[in-house]
Amino acid sequence: MKCFFLYNKTLLLCLCLPVSGLLSCSGNKTSGRAGITSNPDSLEGKQVYLNPADGNTYSTSGAFETYGPEGGTTPKYGPAVLQKIILLTDEPTMERVISIDTLDSYFDADSNTLAAVFKDYKQEGDLLIQFTLYAGKQPLIIVANNGNFDTAILRHLDNALQRNCSYYRTRMDSCTYQAFYRIGTQAPASAAGNKPLQSLH
Hints:
By secondary structure, this protein is of the alpha+beta class.
């Protein structure tokens, strides 16, 4: 698993790229073993990611690693703060099917959509949004959450994402990425603790 950071204006993005295969998994499982996590916020050093959004397991013979600038980054605050981007498609495929500039514009659009949806929302929590992009059809979007989100706001988010992201496309084939957000005024800190994310779908 190779992970690296890209810079999107002042935003730091963690890109985690699997280098081995995809195995079937049947749900939001957690494990006490140090090499396994279902928490996208604690991928570094792990070998197995139990994806809470699609229920699949992503594994690597090495470990998830992260890299960043020497001074760190400035914390951001707001109704919805993007913490990291996790790429679930390998790096050579990503580079072939979609440009970094296009992905960057999608990340900006995603953040704008979430900021609008949660502008006046008083609760806090974590959201993991998985996007599978295709060349010839609308993206598949899956939302997993952890926090005190009511059904109405999650449905509003789902509808806004389906509407605002309907134009997302690859040049060819498909690719999948996840956007991990903290919702609430203290977004840079852990908003919802260590409870597992629950899929909306």
